[in-house]
From TrEMBL:
<dbReference type="InterPro" id="IPR050855">
    <property type="entry name" value="NDM-1-like"/>
</dbReference>
<feature type="region of interest" description="Disordered">
    <location>
        <begin position="259"/>
        <end position="284"/>
    </location>
</feature>
<protein>
    <submittedName>
        <fullName>MBL fold metallo-hydrolase</fullName>
    </submittedName>
</protein>
<dbReference type="Pfam" id="PF00753">
    <property type="entry name" value="Lactamase_B"/>
</dbReference>
<dbReference type="InterPro" id="IPR001279">
    <property type="entry name" value="Metallo-B-lactamas"/>
</dbReference>
<feature type="domain" description="Metallo-beta-lactamase">
    <location>
        <begin position="42"/>
        <end position="232"/>
    </location>
</feature>
<dbReference type="InterPro" id="IPR036866">
    <property type="entry name" value="RibonucZ/Hydroxyglut_hydro"/>
</dbReference>
Length: 284
């Protein structure tokens, strides 16, 4: 997606979701000593550091302030050698799309085998109950294709991938070091807990719910102490909160008070509150 197209999407999405109270992104900063994030409008990208090795989780929009905000966190784009991609929507891969600033052109991306079919044109990304077909995303980075359930290591960082189809057909979530779950667009946190992500952007809403329940069952069996980190609505360390409404999909069209969070910004594309001072001095 070009810079011009990104700006158009910014204006359209700002108009569509203004006042809907659906997106509650974290500001740029640190969750803890291992995880930091950059806010790009309504989306977050994340960085995970262990033993001096830092990886990136998702690549956000084609966003012209990414290098600036990474500097707030003392992160050099050149040091990012690996990027985990949950799914190929342009608010999660924009910084590695052809036509971006190419901050990460030397980075290797990890993406699910099924999700890669979008990138190769064998699947078409559809939203709004299949009525709208999105353009193909083009990425030229070296790719490593990941299977459901696969466990792999980057440096000393242990990563396990789980397939959670529904939002897209090949969406993955990543469990890192058995302590951090990066969920991309599988879970949306409302004021009273987690729901399956936005109905209007799902390939298959019923499958979305089924996948989320399966993920919950897998995690509860392991009895892990987790930080569950979403792409658009912050994080929690309360698994009961995170999976409290997994049988429901967040409805982006109807005004359901328990889904819509009154603490969410009126316009998620207004970043006035996202500052370097806060990024350096406040934990998220």
């Amino acid at each position: 997606m070009s810079k011009i197209e990104s700006k158009i999407q910014e204006k359209v999405m700002s108009f569509l979701f203004r006042g809907k109270e659906l997106f509650k992104p974290l500001n740029t900063g640190h969750i803890d000593e291992r995880v930091s994030c950059v806010r790009e409008y309504v989306a977050n990208i994340y960085f995970y550091k262990k033993d001096e090795h830092r990886i990136m989780i998702d690549a956000g929009y084609n966003y012209d302030r990414l290098a600036e905000k990474m500097k707030w966190l003392d992160i050099d784009p050149k040091d990012i050698r690996e990027i985990l991609i949950t799914h190929q929507d342009t608010d999660h891969v924009g910084a590695i799309e052809k036509g971006s600033d190419e901050l990460f052109r030397e980075s290797t991306i990890y993406i699910g085998k099924i999700e890669n079919e979008y990138l190769e044109g064998r699947k078409k990304r559809r939203v709004f109950d299949g009525l709208v077909k999105l353009p193909q995303v083009h990425i030229e980075n070296k790719k490593v294709l990941v299977d459901d359930g696969e466990v792999f290591y980057i440096g000393n960082i242990k990563i396990e991938a789980f397939l959670v189809p529904g939002h897209t057909w090949g969406h993955l979530v990543y469990l890192i070091d058995d302590a951090y779950l990066f969920t991309g667009d599988t879970i949306s946190f409302g004021p009273d807990g987690g729901y399956a992500f936005l109905n209007i952007l799902a390939e298959d809403k019923k499958l979305q719910v089924k996948s989320l329940k399966k993920l919950e069952e897998t995690l509860r069996r392991r009895n892990l102490k987790l930080k569950i980190i979403t792409g658009h609505t912050g994080w929690t360390d309360d698994i009961d909160f995170a999976f409290s409404h997994t049988d429901e999909v967040c409805n982006g069209l109807k005004r359901k008070p328990k889904v819509h969070d009154p603490k969410a910004p009126y316009d998620g594309y207004d970043e006035e509150d996202d500052t370097e001072d806060k990024a350096r001095n406040l934990l998220l």
